[in-house]
Amino acid sequence: MDLSRHLRIEAHANRLANHRLHGAMAALTHAELHAARTSFFPSLIGTLNHILEVDQYYVGALLGEPELATHWDRFKADEELAPLAARQAACDERLIAFCDALDGAGCERVIELPRSQGRVQRERAAHVLAHLFMHQTHHRGQVHAMLTGTAVEPPQLDEFLMPSEAHLRVPDMAALRWREAEVYGPTA
């Protein structure tokens, strides 16, 4: 499998995991979303907002959006899950579209990441994507752990990368209107 295909699968896996996680969390009350918990960002909603904020920054960088240097100042956190989940889904879909159009040359393209004090970090797109997918997984894991302190059973989040586990994601794939062959391509 080539790198661009792998990154396309990762982008879809990210969307599937967020879809499943947000769906499981829909039963939580406002108080449960905002309750102090043990984690780097000490609430479920705080951690979800952090994931969204970082995702929007890196997707914006990958797409060459202007004004990224002020992204952190402009980001508005959501207080409720539904609007946050909608914004996350939109960002996830933009990431999928970027990765669906990716080829070998696109993986090597240099992405500019505006940082503090006017510094611009330059990285290959594949490295930016690898970093982004790791960041998402890391913080979704924290949300998963925090859910153990609620009545919501933490959903399974790690069965989206292997084609042979299609039977474990049938409802999610149907809800997102995806077909296995479109996401995974030929499996033999």
Descriptors for this entry?
Four Helix Bundle (Hemerythrin (Met), subunit A); globular; 188 residues; metal-binding; DinB; mainly alpha; single chain
What does this structure look like?
The protein has one domain (3-184): Four Helix Bundle (Hemerythrin (Met), subunit A) (Up-down Bundle), CATH 1.20.120.450. It has a two-stranded antiparallel sheet with strand order 1-2. The protein is mostly helical. The chain has nine helices and two strands; from the N terminus they run ααααααββααα.
**Low-pLDDT stretches:** none
CATH topology, by name, is Four Helix Bundle (Hemerythrin (Met), subunit A)
Biggest sheet: strand arrangement: 1-2
Total DSSP E strands: 2
Mean pLDDT rating: 95
Report the CATH superfamily.
Answer: dinb family like domain
CA radius of gyration: 17 Å
Question: Approximately what portion of the residues adopt beta-strand conformation?
Answer: 5-15%
N- and C-termini, Cα separation: 11 Å
> Class by helix and strand content?
mainly alpha
- So what's the CATH class? Mainly Alpha
Name the quaternary structure: single chain
Topology as H/E string?
HHHHHHEEHHH
CATH arch. level architecture: Up-down Bundle
Shape: globular
